[in-house]
């Protein structure tokens, strides 16, 4: 009995606006690492073609990372249904995309496609929209984007390090030095309670 390979997830979306078209892809590893991709299409493309572009680029990126098992999510009912061969392709220009996508699909040991509502596809929608609005670098380069959630104000728990002494005393500079380097300054008495940063945590 072989070892079961953990599944990656991929979300994709395409955006076409007056200024141009962009694609967004988000690969998520089994351990939860998020790898975003976005790109601008410098050629005319319909909404449906842009969706295919995004999906194919995502599949290629996944294979490049050595992904073998993949769950693919998109918010276009039409495209997902066509990929699943549930709907016949009526646009002739999409047939070449469909063949290309099926070729990349066959390179995975296991792959499944699923429709998700747009609300669950917001990150790649934003990546695609952003890419469609701007002229970016021409080189093929992944530029990671991280969106963090902050729970406290930026100025909270901030200690300024200006190398000088403030009017209220210098005790916090000693604590900062200890937290950074793990050593006491020579002029500091280690037994003085004010010089034990652990009392503040």
How would you characterize this protein structure?
- The protein has 201 residues and is an alpha/beta fold.
- It has two domains: 8-133, Ribonuclease H-like superfamily/Ribonuclease H (Nucleotidyltransferase, domain 5, 2-Layer Sandwich); 149-201, no CATH class.
- The protein is 31% helix and 19% strand.
- It has helices spanning 47-64, 77-83, 92-105, 122-133, 171-181, and strands at 8-17, 20-28, 34-41, 69-74, 110-115.
- It has a five-stranded mixed β-sheet.
- It is elongated.
Give, in order, the helices and strands: EEEHEHHEHH
CATH secondary-structure class of the largest domain: Alpha Beta
Main sheet, how many strands, which sense, barrel?
A: 5 strands, mixed
CATH homologous superfamily (4th level) name of the largest domain: Ribonuclease H-like superfamily/Ribonuclease H
List keywords for this structure.
Nucleotidyltransferase, domain 5, 201 residues, 5-stranded mixed beta sheet, alpha/beta, disordered C terminus
Task: Give a nutshell description of this structure.
With 201 residues, the chain is of the alpha/beta class. The protein contains 5 helices and 5 strands, in the order E-E-E-H-E-H-H-E-H-H. It has a 5-stranded mixed sheet with strand order 3-2-1-4-5.
């Amino acid at each position: 009995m072989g070892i079961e390979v953990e599944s990656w997830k991929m979300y994709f979306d395409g955006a076409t606006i007056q200024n141009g078209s962009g694609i967004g892809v988000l690969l998520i590893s089994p351990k939860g690492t998020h790898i975003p991709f976005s790109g601008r299409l410098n050629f005319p493309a319909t909404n449906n073609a842009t969706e295919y572009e995004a999906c194919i680029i995502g599949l290629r990126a996944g294979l490049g990372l050595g992904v073998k098992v993949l769950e693919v999510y998109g918010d276009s009912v039409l495209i997902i249904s066509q990929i699943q061969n549930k709907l016949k392709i009526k646009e002739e220009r999409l047939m070449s995309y469909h063949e290309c996508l099926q070729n990349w699909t066959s390179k995975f040991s296991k792959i499944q496609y699923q429709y998700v509502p747009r609300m669950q596809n917001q990150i790649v929608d934003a990546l695609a929209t952003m890419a469609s609005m701007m002229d970016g670098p021409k080189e093929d380069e992944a530029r990671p984007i991280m969106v963090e959630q902050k729970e406290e104000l930026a100025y909270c728990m901030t200690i300024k390090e200006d190398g000088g002494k403030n009017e209220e005393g210098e005790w916090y500079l000693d604590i900062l030095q200890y937290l950074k380097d793990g050593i006491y300054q020579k002029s500091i008495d280690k037994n003085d309670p004010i010089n034990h940063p652990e009392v503040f945590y």
